[in-house]
Amino acid sequence: MSLLSVSHLKAGYGPINVLHDVELTVEAGEIVVMLGANGAGKTTTMRAISGMIGRSGEVHFEGADIARATPDAIVRAGIAQVPQGRGTFPELNVEDNLRCGAYIRSDKEIDADIDRWFDVFPRLRERRAQRAGSLSGGEQQMLAIARALMARPKLLLCDEPSLGLAPLITQELFAVIERLNREMGLSVLLVEQNANLAMHMAHRVYLIETGRIVASGSAAELSADDSIRKAYLGF
Amino acid sequence: MKSLVTIKEGSIGHWVLRLLAAAIVVAIMLWIPTKGSNGLVTSATEALTLMSAAMALNLILGYTGQISIGHSAFYGTGAYVTGILVSKYEWSPWLTFPVAFLFAFVVGVLVSFPASRIKGVYLALVTLALALVFPNLLRWPKLESLTGGGPGIPNGDSALDTTGFNIGRRDGQMRNFEIFGWDPFGDLRGQGAIPFYYWIAAGIAVIVYLVIRGVVKSRAGRSLIAVRDNETAAAVMGVNLVATKAFAFGISAGLCALPGSVTAIRLGAVSPDIATLTILGSLTFLIIMVIGGAGSLWGPIIGAALYVFVTDRTGGWADDEAIPGVLRPFFGWSKIPPGSGIFAVILIVLMFVAPRGLVGVWKQYSPRVVRVVPRPAGVAHDAKPALVADTTTNSTPEGESE
Ligand SMILES: Nc1ncnc2c1ncn2[C@@H]1O[C@H](COP(=O)(O)OP(=O)(O)OP(=O)(O)O)[C@@H](O)[C@H]1O
Ligand SMILES: [Mg+2]
């Protein structure tokens, strides 16, 4: 049984239909990367999975049907999302942002978890009491990821974490994601524009075009296919 | 920015500073009813009532980012619940407070459902309608048996007496409020209703402050700010937007009803013509909150004190002779007291120089004198190599150049 399996997914905004028929799966412990041009429907797919927009079709998470669940029920089920464009809470300080990430939790280990993500992102520890709005772009992206992880998700939906980051920072961020995947077994569904970089760490890749999955396979398979490489991957 | 004194958060110095601030507040609150003139006590009561309402409004506008021009209706709900229960059903005024809270809470939650789907200007319009409808609802003939219609419930009804809603005895004497043989009102300042109302208003203001402080500093409060700052991100973190907004609206409305009840007790009468029960009340709460500083605990408190100070000082200025000499050329032309006009000018100026209100100004400049530095973050348990090194400062906002 796959951790996440999506089939016949249709979604859109009001009368506009954006996703026509999206099929994808994420196995436990996998990093799956979704590639596609601007406006292909990557963010929309993420929003449909996390319940932020109306959708139809089947979405199963750990065998349970979540196609009609509310966003908070989906978070509780174990799916956390880093929204596109670093959705931090600018007026809250770094620590309170992390506490917000643990909104669905009421256990005693929240402080320990905060400390743990401060170990992974030391820059955040230094800025613990600083307003999130005053962090640099890269720091905000780290905060957004750490905050999503505060929910202790089984699956992390990560929408273009590299947006606006210097190449070096992007590499480091990806290294963190890979490490979390390796050490904690965190499953990740990652949207990326930077195909080259993302495919290095992907176990499997999906290509999406105008609301449909048009190709899928391992990174090696896809980059071996000349037509796909030219049309979608740009290298 | 250099500061004269630097204090660590949670250190002894920080606690001394906090206690000092608390002591000053308590001293002022005690000094006014014991040593102040009757006029001052009345003004302070007014300020306490308005600040309670502005604090309540602050919870949804300052912290949740939802505008409401309808809070005069919640305020009025409190006034009428108290008025009706005391005059028609002979309740003790004290017992009407929780009922007023609950009633307004329910109304607030109901209002929040359309409010959670609309935003900005549209929400302003819906709540504006609420403010406009409310006084007319009170005058509605079908409700007249309850609300007293246009004239409202006048002072001097059977159950009422000179000291307001049943607070004094029927023979006109104040009830005995002794605590272990010590009569706080009598001993501190002779028998009288004026300081008594002050104490009620002060008690309510303290309760409203503590509730709001409790909410804001809690997990629920963080989620309110999260919703204000970034709704989408809050939702994907598991915050239920509809329930959160309903909770905030309900608490805000319920708390706003409490100063309304105080007003009813103080006047010993309620009517749809009381200014704070109309749209004027909503605007007053709004202006007080914005001038003091939206989204801060102290904003409405400072705003209300300043508002009452200005309107009191200029109350007689319709008469040219009453205006101090230097200011006479500026306000002599005014045929009505220029208080609200002056306040409007303050508002406009503040919006340019300090959009976060007076508290914002304080937060900007007070660190030059005393700065409280936050506690150092928890020390790393083991020295794991940091995966993300200190290179983030190089990050470019333009994006990847690939
Ligand atoms: N809130 C919205 N209302 C209406 N249409 C929308 C909305 N958000 C996105 N769309 C449309 O849906 C389509 C897919 O958008 P989506 O954000 O999913 O693209 P994307 O693949 O994430 O692109 P990018 O790489 O630029 O982030 C676009 O044509 C866009 O115009
Ligand atoms: Mg996108």
Descriptive notes:
- The complex is a heterodimer of chains A (235) and B (402).
- By secondary structure, chain A is an alpha/beta fold.
- Chain A folds into two domains: 1-78 and 154-235, Rossmann fold (3-Layer(aba) Sandwich); 88-152, no CATH class.
- Chain A is 39% helix and 27% strand.
- In chain A, helix 3 runs parallel beside helix 6 (137-149).
- Chain A starts with a strand and ends with a helix.
- The mean pLDDT of chain A is 88.
- Chain B is mainly alpha-helical and 402 residues long.
- Chain B has a domain at 40-280.
- Adenosine-5'-triphosphate binds next to strand 2 and helix 1 of chain A.
Kindly estimate the percentage of residues of chain A that lie in beta strands according to DSSP: 25-35%
Counted beta strands of chain A: 10
The two chains with the largest interface, and their residue counts, are:
A-B, 62 and 42 residues
CATH architecture of the largest domain in chain A: 3-Layer(aba) Sandwich
- Spatially, the strands of the biggest sheet of chain B line up as 1-2
Q: Can you summarize the main beta sheet of chain B? A: 2 strands, parallel
Looking at the structure, the CATH topology of the largest domain in chain A is: Rossmann fold
Low-confidence stretches of chain A: none
CATH H-level homologous superfamily name of the largest domain in chain A? P-loop containing nucleotide triphosphate hydrolases
The profile of the biggest β sheet of chain A is: 6 strands, mixed
Number of helices of chain B: 16
Per CATH, the class of the largest domain in chain A reads Alpha Beta
| H/E element order of chain B | EHHHHHHHHHHHHHHHHE
- Total domain modules of chain A: 2
Taking all Cα atoms into account, the compactness measure Rg of chain A is 17 Å
What hetero molecules are bound to the protein chains?
A: adenosine-5'-triphosphate, magnesium ion
> Can you tell me the residue ranges of chain B where pLDDT is under 50 for at least 5 consecutive residues?
157-175, 378-402
Average pLDDT over all residues of chain A: 88
